[in-house]
Amino acid sequence: MCRGKTLKEHTWEGFVLRDGANVLMMGSADALPEQPSQKTKFIEDMTDAQLTSELDLPVGLTNLGNTCYMNATLQCLGSIPELRTALFDYKKSLHEGLSEHNPEECVAIGIRDLYRDIDRAGDMISPMILVQLMHQAFPQFAEKDDQGRLQQQDANECWVQLVRVLQQYIPLVGGGKDEGATVAGEGGTIGEKGEEGAMVQAGASGVAAGGAQGGSVGGKSLKFITQYMGIDYESTMRCKESESEPEVTQHESGLQLSCFISQDVKYINSGLKNRLQEEIVKASGSLGRDAVYVKTTRISRLPRYLVVQMVRFFYKEKEKVNAKILKDVKFSLELDLYDLCNKALQTKIAPTRERFRLAAEADQSGTAAASKASAPQYESSSFPEDPGSNNSGYYQLHAVLTHKGRSSNSGHYVAWCRLPTGWVMFDDDTVMPVLPEDILKLSGGGDWHCAYVLLYAAKPLEKK
Question: In this structure, are residues 230 and 282 in contact, taking their beta carbons and an 8 Å threshold?
Fold first, then answer.
């Protein structure tokens, strides 16, 4: 160290060392580390395509002008692996000629082809073909404003139409034949619809409803949507003004539950329960006039994938607009529907629920077997005689479709899906990983994204 001198990198010029001088060497005698062969990449500097590749994320869908409602719906439905398997097993092709298929069947084929493109693509893709097919099958989605631009649509209406199409044309993998067996249940007829104004949305007419109360499918192919997303109900109608009039039991089927949001609803469970008992006015045969009836509804079959619509929109006659209910309604990452089931189903799912309880106690006490390096194995979540059902009543959140804005005919829709790698947000062509805490913030209460459609999947029970 010499005062006023700076040692240059490759020479001792300017430094005079006397004999016997002490020199302190600082550093390492090893070779200097080599410069990285590849420049360090930061997430902030990556393009969407680079981010998707590095994080192994699925690809997004291009917004073709207010088509976010369709993009979000497709991403949520596409997160169901069994649905993709059933679609890819469907052999018909658009190349056979559009005249050979009706427009709705072309939509089902278009959905399958889009999912194939998503699996193969390394970057965002355009759903142009499917949009054109949807406009042909459902002209309401082709409406335009005064400037000739596509109008925003209700994502739940799109969901209902796409699911109905898939229900009509996509069978279970391998045909799903039920060789004349009677599907488990409690009597009644397959495919019965509830009365007008019932809380359920009935499936497409003419489609065999596998899993309905006790009907025989007579060897017909079971439909994937009916088996994996179909809900069966048992309702009783009691006349409140006549004790002598006997109760009437009805069986209904649907593809989603509705959570009606009122002033006292703060949690999704209470919103679902509120519609299980209601008073309606109808004609009484015994009294010869209109009378008040109490309708009590319970679930008699649960599907593997449960759809819950948060009824956030209502029509304002004065402004002629579908206004939005911004109220904060909490939902959780897990859902238990035991209290919504009828007695027969509660008894039927009790053994699996007991195994869940014992597994939870074993985990808490530390007596559970040590986890293995291999992937965990899970028990079947369906009853053996009813593929696609839920044999426990327990669900875990699988996808959320949200809306940001004040009207169903405006604003923006986004999908949030739970994948094997974690939660991912699909904002059209932007795909980003998110945390479970971010999902729970979608409960509403302001102008941020509000949960509009929730997709729950049967909670798996790990084999011990």
Answer: no
Instruction: For residue 449, indicate whether it is catalytic.
Output: no
Spot the catalytic one: 158, 239, 251, 412: 412
Is 412 noted as a catalytic residue in this protein?
yes
Q: Which of 68, 158, 239, 341 is catalytic?
A: 68
Digitized pLDDT (tens) for each residue of the chain, 464 residues in all: 556 566 677 777 777 777 877 777 666 667 777 777 777 777 667 766 666 666 678 899 999 999 999 999 999 999 999 999 999 999 888 876 655 668 999 999 999 999 999 998 878 899 999 999 999 999 999 999 888 899 999 999 999 999 999 999 999 875 444 333 323 333 332 233 333 333 333 333 333 333 333 333 444 568 999 999 999 999 999 999 998 899 999 999 999 999 989 888 999 999 999 888 889 999 998 898 999 999 999 999 999 999 999 998 887 777 777 788 889 999 999 999 999 999 999 999 999 999 999 999 888 876 655 555 567 889 999 999 999 999 999 999 999 999 998 877 789 999 999 999 899 999 999 999 999 999 999 999 878 899 999 999 999 999 87
Contacts of 444 (CB under 8 A, 6+ apart): 310, 312, 325, 326, 327, 328, 329, 450, 451
Q: Identify whether the C-beta of residue 285 lies closer than 8 Å to the C-beta of residue 276.
A: no
The amino acid at residue 58 is: P
Residue 336 forms beta bridges with which residues? 394
Contact 385, 182 (CB under 8 A): no
Quote the tokens at residue 209: 């409803």
Which residues, other chains included, contact 368 with Cβ-Cβ below 8 Å and sequence gap of 6+? Answer: 359, 362, 464
Strand 257-260 and strand 305-311: the pairing is: parallel
Residue type, 265: V
Give the list of residues 6+ apart from residue 1 with CB closer than 8 angstroms, or none: 24
Adjacency order of strands within the sheet including 248-254? 248-254, 231-239, 289-301, 277-284
Cβ burial of 146 (10 Å; 0-12, 13-18, 19+) is exposed
Q: What single DSSP character describes residue 57?
A: P
What ranges in 182-330 are assigned the alpha helix state H? 224-229, 268-273
Q: For residues 77 and 422, what is the distance between their CA atoms, to the nearest angstrom? A: 17
Q: Which residues of 252-276 are buried (b: 16+ CB within 10 A; e: fewer)?
A: bbbbbbbbebeeebeebbebbebbb
Q: What is the pTM of this model?
A: 0.79
**Cβ atoms 264, 270 nearer than 8 A:** yes
Quote the CA–CA distance of 83 and 66 in Å, as a whole number: 26
- For residue 296, which of 227, 257, 342 has the smallest C-alpha distance? 342
